[in-house]
Write a structure and sequence with these properties.
Length: 250
Amino acid sequence: MANSKTVIIKIKRQDNPNSKPYWEEFELPYRPGMNVTSSLMDIAANPITRQGKATAPVTYDSNCLEEVCGSCAMLINGRARMACSALIDKLDQPVRLEPFSKFPIVRDLSVDRSVLFENLKKVKAWVPTDGTYDLGSGPRQSAEQQELNYPLSRCISCCCCMEACPQFNDKTGFVGAAAISQVRLFNNHPTGKALKIERLKALMGDGGIQECGYAQNCVEVCPKDIPLTKSIADVGGQVMWQAIKDLFRS
Ligand code: SF4
Ligand code: SF4
Ligand code: FES
């Protein structure tokens, strides 16, 4: 810490998707319990750089402030994590804030993470319940299914796993660990498994599960402790069996 009464924050900023990034530094009065999001709120209330220059308030995403909505993900001291749960007391200073590097910039710390939602659509990460009449209640989930599914259902779509993954890039088009883990979740759901084969087929070929190099960066950064490497191994096995079945059917 620069001194016990202030917090130094360096922010990589970008005014629009096509402009050049630049850094600005801010010095804030220290308050016990402050986190990265509350620091960004302090900057918004008084957008003056450490050098005394008036600047535009920093753009960032946030909503729930309790690590549930997934919107505030960014690089904090180089690590993909959630700003609302990143306590200033636990961070080395100066605290460096950068937008995710693998997603299109909207402005400053805000990025467009819609690729995850496109990938979730690709693998049909939902329970098919549409109908023009009341379908009634679905089958009950066993205690074993609940035990496996609950941790997987905690995904907050933050994209930290994708940002940290060496295989998630334009060249591979890899869907990423979050979408794969949702395939495991919905394939293990009594109603969701109706789309199991379509999900597995979506993970075959370019951008599919074989792009994973098993580096395990994803599981290291997941804020919800989702067992991503187990999901990748499990779904990898399901995809392989489906490919073998397809081979014998053809
Ligand atoms: S195991 Fe490695 S390559 Fe596979 S999704 Fe996770 S970080 Fe990416
Ligand atoms: S799997 Fe974890 S890191 Fe990835 S999007 Fe979901 S909550 Fe975030
Ligand atoms: S503001 Fe919702 S997860 Fe941080």
